[in-house]
Protein: Uracil phosphoribosyltransferase
Amino acid sequence: MRTLVVDHPLVAHKLTVLRDETTDSPTFRNLTDELVTLLAYEATRDVRVEPSDIVTPVAPTTGVKLATPRPLVVPILRAGLGMLDGMMRLLPTAEVGFLGMVRNEETLEAATYAERLPEDLSGRQCYVLDPMLATGGTLAAAIRFLTARGADDITAVCLLAAPEGCANLEAGLAGLEVPVTVVVAAMDEKLNDKGYIVPGLGDAGDRLYGVVG
Ligand SMILES: O=P(O)(O)OC[C@H]1O[C@H](OP(=O)(O)OP(=O)(O)O)[C@H](O)[C@@H]1O
Ligand SMILES: O=c1cc[nH]c(=O)[nH]1
Ligand SMILES: [Mg+2]
Structure:
């Protein structure tokens, strides 16, 4: 597993405002959107392209276009949905599949409650969107799900990660042949005893969409 922490002053600035507990939901959604577009630039560095012959107003030339099959973008509901528009801004022709997952806040185990993905993901590059890599349980389950369907290259785009979660994720993916990259805006200090990222930003889903009882 490769982990890329995006080191950029604009990312750091936006992340600081995002973390602030006084930042309201509309601002939080806008900042998430902007941050993901910045992360997407790094996350798509290895997106597959193929040669394409075109004619400019001056001369014929060969450039590149996104290869087929197109990449699949997979937001993990609920909080990952807040990252979808920011990602699609850079990959407007990507397909989108959905995974609904929730972490049991007592056991910290991830459960899948919804799935809408192509049956066959053979040869597909997948971009998984989830703002928080905390214990890593959610992301590990999502990646296993996609690779079991045939996905052969996975990049996870996250806002924050905890070192413990990255280690758990790596251990959870042991033996997997498929390359996995995690692109993240910041590697935080640790998890607290409730499995929250410290200093973190709180519950990303609640801050994006409000508290569900
Ligand atoms: O790394 P983990 O310990 O598995 O935790 C991370 C997960 O927790 C949050 O989702 P949550 O379960 O709160 O669902 P939500 O997006 O609907 O709020 C977050 O969006 C991740 O999916
Ligand atoms: O800090 C955390 C951990 C899990 N999920 C969140 O939304 N935030
Ligand atoms: Mg949540």
Notes: Residues 79, 132, 134, 196-197, 200, 203-205 surround uracil (ligand 2) (CB under 6 Å). The two ends are 36 Å apart (CA to CA).
